[in-house]
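Cross-posted from the bioinformatics board.
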Amino acid sequence: MKTERNSPPQTNGTIEFHLPKFNNFVLDNGLEVFFVQKNNLPLVQLNMLVNAGSKFDPINKSGLAYLTSLLIDEGAGEFNSLQLDDEFESLGSIFGVSTDNDNIHLSLLTLKENLSRSLELFSLVYQSPNFTEHDFIREQKKLASTIIQHQDDPSYIATSNFDNIIFDGTNYKNPIIGNVGDVNSISNYDITEFYKKHFTPLNTKLVVVGNIELKELNVLLNKHFNSTNRNKIEEQNDIIPITQKQQFYFIHKENAAQSEIRIGHLSDKRNETDYFAKVIANSILGGQFSSRLNLNLREDKGFTYGINSAFSYSKNAGHFEIATSVNGKDTGEAIAEINKEITGLKSEIKKDEIEFTKSYLVKRFPAMFETYSQIAHHLSTMLKYKLSEDYFDNYIEKIIACSMDEIEKIAKEKIISDELIYLIVGEREMVLPQLKKITDLKIVELDVNGKVINQ
Amino acid sequence: MNDILNIKYEKHILENGLEVVLYQDKSLPIVSVNLWYKVGSANETNGKTGFAHLFEHMMFQGSMNVPKEKHFKFIEEAGGNLNGSTSFDGTNYYETVPANSLELALWLESDRMGFLLEALTQDKLDNQKDVVMNERRQRYDNQPYGLSWEIIFSNLFPENHPYHWPTIGWMKDIEKFELNDVRSFFKTYYSPNNASLVIGGDIEYASTLELVKKYFDEIPTGEPIPKISIPKAELTENKKIIHQDNVQLSKLYLTWETAKLYDTDDATLDVLSDILTGSKNGRLFKSLVFDKQIAQDISTFQYSANLTGMFIVIATAKPGVDLEVLKTEILLELKKVMDDGITEKELKRSINTVKSSFIYTLQNLNSIVNQINNYNTNLGEPNSLNYDLGRFQKLNSKEIKDVANKYLSNNFVELQIVPKENNNEN
């Protein structure tokens, strides 16, 4: 008997999923802890958010937060840099540091059997970093070279310059890793002062997901995290999007094999009222593989390996951005197609597109809580954006509740054609004539560091 | 501890030759489907490079009962995620979906295994050739140092060696592919007897096997798969290549041919690599990056595949540092390992790192199912996590020293990627 294959099989049964529940408690020194017990493997994951991201870099000292994050685990307590690394490695524990605009994140993944020792080391890094002059000079030089290396990467040139333009006049303007001149002017004193000001219990939140009882965790954390510094830095002001004028920017890259394209503008910071309507409208435009942009520019025209769009958020700001890289000779046509899709989204969104996207977002929900680090990530997101504690409990309901009107309103009002900033990094001779065909605006030419060169 | 690495499974071989492995894990209501075809860029020939990968793209273009664009759409609508990947030796396709959509995934996979050509068109091929050429531009041609791998492969292996070209293929070959290439490749390699299917997650064994049979049983067995011939050729002297690129810092790559995947020396070389650059205390890292500060970064890999393997050292020079200085220091540190061996402490640190990483892998269903398929395909035994970890745990320090001597004293390929001359602007 031949198998019936004409139409897709129906789903079989319903999905039962229980959202992991979290608890929160405060350590004796005021540090807040958010905890999910998860017992399927003998693991513990920690994510620590320190209110110390690059938005706190002083003027002319871009890169200060990032360089602090590079130095924080270069020796702590009685251990020098190499000894400390050896201690973590011998346990097979993975300790990591990363920095974004808002926070420095310290993270740890460890086997349960090594938790106590790993926490002890983690707390040394957090509370007693050595910050020796010797380590400082080495890491400072290394960072200066890293920045030079990044300048060879067309994708980085595009992204960093795009941020530089749309966040002009705000403290989200500079690259997290800083500018070379600024980094060279930072001293080890700057690092220790920055550290003292930011790395305090009241500026820190800790997320723990692991195979451990709450009581045991509470005792362990109180034992190791005992700094009593009461310093608390002030929150920064939110960035209110201002009306901008549509503008084209171009950066020449010798022999570029493709053109990197960034298109977008500032938008509101994340909130719980229109967040999901934005997610749905954007998914339809460019937020998933089967989006209008990807199906057109990749699956129909073959201009690119991929294209995506997003409403992205920092703690105090938001922006809308379309990003892709296309074959140089197709640059103008690709931008014209992107414009067409933006206009198209504003004029019509179909009901089945909305249903498709809702289905995608709702049904993938359980898989968002698979690994220890995924759960820790979602909790961290909740903390970072100060989302309500029942945010994930109501997640599915809120998606389903988004109406066609709300989604259309986002497309019409939150993606603003007249205010789009276009940035292209590519081969001048090939690309500029194409750009002149699609816009009458003056095309501002920049160098890789964002300096205007054609005025 | 090693008990949680003991994978319980059922294995069946369908009459058409398809190997099926089922693995139950009910911790979340999701299922991962992983279908591995034993064909990769090593099955290609000169003039037709990159085809296994381009073909992977064609597998997402719909099949007899699945219209173009719908393959992705069906999975996304079900709340799943999906992708494929191509290497020297294999091509795999995988999707993770809510447990109640398992049948959808099997319907899609079986439709393209059995009935791909019915939906093949010139437009689809032309479109995906453009996409893949843009993939090549984005991931290799427009990346700083992006051509390093293909330069190394094509110099380390002779022209008729299956690993002479990169998986993405040469641009001039990608441009030329025709519909007939797709047809003959499909008929030669995409048959159930050349594939291994692993389904893991929230499943019941009996009903899942029934579903697999429903969709895959009627796909006919293919012809036996053509064998790959491997020329036996060793480098007769050291080779040095200097390549100019749009970069500001110079980079050095040293590559030796070594042991293949799961060879007795494979894990030993992994540990050697970890001891050299796996941490700040890694010999090469400590010497070049930390102490002497002549390198911006340094890394090493034992990159092993089915036919052979290679050991690669990659170092970026600090501004103003000559690559010859880097090379001398690297060879000096390697010589120390070859002459004096390593310490017990270094070995223990490395083994502990490996052990933890095995446990960490268990967190993600897609990773574990892919690993099970790797074991089933390459070792014939899906439950091999403990065997795999054991390869590392049984090593002693003398074996690390011996393996360094066995391979790193042979001839090697040296690639220097240096800034373009007269390159005053970016």
